[in-house]
Amino acid sequence: MNPAADATSTPGELGEPGDPADTGPPRPDVLVVGAGMTGVNQAYRLLEEGFTVEVVEAGDGVGGTWFWNRYPGSRFDSESYTYGFLFSEELFDEWVWSEHFAGQPEIERYVNHVVDKFDLRRHITFGVRVTAAQWDGESCTWAVTLDDGTVRRARHLIAATGVLSVPYLPDIPGIDGFAGVAHHTGRWPAEPVDFTGKRVAIVGTSSSGVQVLPVVAPVAESVTVYQRTANWCTPLNNSPITDEEQAQLRADFAQLKQILDTSPHGFHHTAVEDTALDASAEEREAFFERVWSSPGFRKLTSNYADVLLDPEANELWCAFIAAKIRSIVDDPVAAEALIPTDHRYAQKRPPFVAGYFEAFNLPNVELVDLRATPMVRVTRTGIETTDGERPFDVIVWATGFDFGTGALMRLGVRAGDHVLTDDWADGPATWAGVQCAGFPNFFFPGGPHAAAGNNPRYNSDQVEFVTDLLCAARAAGETRIELDPAAEQRWTAMVDRGAQSSAFGSDNYYFGSNIPGKPHRLLLNASGRPKLLKTFAESRAHDFPEFHRS
Length: 550
Ligand code: NAP
What we know:
By secondary structure, this protein is α/β, with parallel strands linked by helices. The protein folds into 2 domains: about 5-165 and about 405-550, FAD/NAD(P)-binding domain (3-Layer(bba) Sandwich), CATH 3.50.50.60; about 205-395, no CATH class. The chain has helices spanning about 5-10, 35-50, 65-70, 80-85, 90-95, 105-115, 210-215, 245-250, 255-260, 280-290, 300, 310-330, 330-335, 355-360, 420-425, 455-475, 485-500, 530-540, and strands at about 30-35, 55, 125, 130-135, 140-145, 150-155, 155-160, 180-185, 200-205, 220-225, 235, 350-355, 365-370, 375-380, 380-385, 390, 395, 415, 420, 440-445, 480-485, 545-550. It has a 5-stranded parallel sheet with strand order 3-2-1-7-20, covered by helices on one side. The protein has a 5-stranded mixed sheet with strand order 6-5-4-18-19. A 5-stranded parallel sheet has the order 8-17-9-10-13, covered by helices on one side. NADP nicotinamide-adenine-dinucleotide phosphate (NAP) binds near residues 77 and 206.
């Protein structure tokens, strides 16, 4: 079905603009901010339900994360077919992913295909950024100011702005004065960056930085990797999807969708009941070997049941990885530096790699341990650490993001006395990561506090919930949907309680610790998707009691 075609024949709830302050196209029922995975999903679902929708997007194209993070080596680490949209079997059938973990160009092509297939592009305004959003209680609408000077007015405002969309550049003296080429992985330019014969620095050794190194090292004159904290990297184990596998995926769509719609982590991986501590040393070694060779996140989801829960079991898995690193990296000093010593496996989000450790055996790759020789400044020509300056042509800043709340806090959202940046000054307060009290008709699926796991899956849960809530309000002739503060308080307290006992370490971006001055609060939800799904089911069953509707 083509929801966009349907939507044009269904008049919008608000009709045409009548307010002279409107400077945009006809008023939509819903203004969606962001044309990434969540924004496209949300727009599709609302159009399908007959709402009028405008999407505003800062980029020149769709894809969100997969539009901005076009750095060399950027690719999925969730299986492609578990990350994509599941709202159309026809789409699933016709799209052929070339690899189990697709690269960024293919992912961007996919999102473009989806937008064109369902005729969503004409609902999207590209190249505009929201600078302010003001709730008008009289008309029950949001007035949203864009950086092109225009104002949009819509009944509902849905910020699908993502959790990893505001890049973080550290405050290092001289960082703006570098005369060479410098890019953050999260704002990688569309024009290709030529690394051939160049002296390259990569700063940051987490999920992004470790993807860049193996792609750039073979062509660059030299690559210097600046590492502050080593990470527990394991192989992605990517491979092409064969015709037989593709046929099987198609045949299994209903079953796969059912699993992905309900699994605790949003993957289709089967959990293991055996425990590391109950296995013999030989059994464990053989099992860990199989896990090491398994694709992607199975290192977490299909590992021994106690690896993420019991520090002793976790230590056994870490020792196995450490031995692998020592066996791959020729230089024993580099090998030791690449083995984490300050956190257990999965206390930080573990990266998945292809040829990362092997790259350190190349004669043109050097590892700089910033714990031993901290960075002092960026000069016009390079980077200076306490052991001197190294000259570079290109610096890749793989230094992460203002996770969870970064984009929402930059939207300038206000409703009456409520200013989002004030209300969240000590960290976000939400109900199920979809709304916060004091901001009627403002939703943020894909934002903080929802769950943890394969993002598009639990973000889809939120999209479906918001869609159902808007449908229920429309059916009842209601124009205002406002979260009860008690519901927000309950959910936020649950998130904070879970943070105390969660398997996540607390010194990482999940807690905002990577951003100087950011409140130290869990930005995910350690109770995970089961809690989210149960909460949504109960809310639906009782006609959304967490919300005041009028
Ligand atoms: P990140 O995990 O936050 O890592 C940032 C890196 O920069 C860390 O190594 C950090 O070191 C380093 N860093 C930060 N400030 C620094 C400074 N002042 N000096 C030196 N180093 C500094 O960011 P990311 O690698 O971009 O990944 C973010 C998330 O994006 C991932 O967790 C994942 O969810 C997603 N992602 C996914 C994929 C994929 O495969 N699908 C690929 C890339 C990213 P410290 O650890 O010491 O702070």
